[in-house]
Specification:
With about 230 residues, the chain is α/β, with parallel strands linked by helices. The strands form 2 sheets. Strands 2-1-3-4-5 form a 5-stranded mixed beta sheet, with helices on both faces. The N and C termini lie far apart (about 50 Å).
């Protein structure tokens, strides 16, 4: 054992979802933890718009190569989803870290895989994240199926209540409007008009209004904080 400071890569992932956790917030959290834990911190910031998998992030791949080469002792992120939203990727990262002798630190979970308990909690968090992703995906598909069943000729007056509840549910889970729009488009959920793509403004309109059995109710009068 030496008295050298642990050399940690602080990985910051930036997406187009500007309402998501921003790079400055991620960097500040990592720097605070570095001071508290006595790390020698190197920040790596990656603009990865839609790179949900590690294989599509060149700076992450370089960081992993540096970790494998023993240039660093660990990889730290402010939130688990900055590292991976994919269970397969996350499990592979954990296996690689254990085999190669480096650690993963997730500040939001309070997890450090240098310990047996930390590695177990990291695995559990990946499982729960995967379950949540599948549940959201199933709800989206169910809403899309019902939308197809109730589709009729002409311009619909409003979205089905299930789609509205889906959008609200995704928002309540912390998804940004841009992320919700992207997911609805990816899953083929039709807009209120049945034409065009979901956009941030269309999602915002849903969040400011309510539908019930095809009827439209005036937008909510309560003022929401700016997003």
């Amino acid at each position: 054992m030496t008295n050298e400071k642990p050399r940690i890569i602080g990985y910051v992932r930036v997406s187009t979802d500007k309402q998501d956790i921003g790079p400055e917030v991620q960097i500040d959290a990592l720097r605070e933890e570095a001071v508290r834990m006595g790390w020698e911190l190197t920040i790596v910031r990656e603009d990865a718009v839609s790179a949900a998998t590690v294989a599509k992030r060149p700076l992450m791949l370089q960081a992993l190569a540096d970790l494998k080469a023993k240039r660093y002792d660990g990889l730290a992120v402010s939130k688990l989803d900055r590292l991976s939203r994919n269970m397969e990727d996350g499990t592979r990262l954990l296996a690689d870290s254990q085999r190669q002798g480096w650690r993963i630190v997730c500040l939001d979970l309070g997890v450090d895989t240098a310990t047996i308990m930390g590695a177990g909690m990291f695995n559990m968090a990946l499982n729960f994240a995967e379950i949540e992703r599948r549940v959201i995906g199933k709800r989206t598909k169910d809403a899309m199926a019902k939308l197809k069943e109730t589709k009729h000729v002409g311009r619909p007056r409003a979205l089905p209540a299930d789609v509205v509840e889906l959008v609200r549910g995704l928002r309540d889970r912390g998804q940004t409007m841009a992320t919700i729009a992207a997911q609805l488009n990816a899953d083929g959920v039709a807009t209120a008009s049945g034409e065009g793509q979901w956009t941030t403004s269309k999602v915002q309109s849903v969040l400011k209004s309510r539908t019930a059995k095809g009827s439209y109710i005036e937008p909510l009068t309560e003022k929401r904080s700016s997003l």
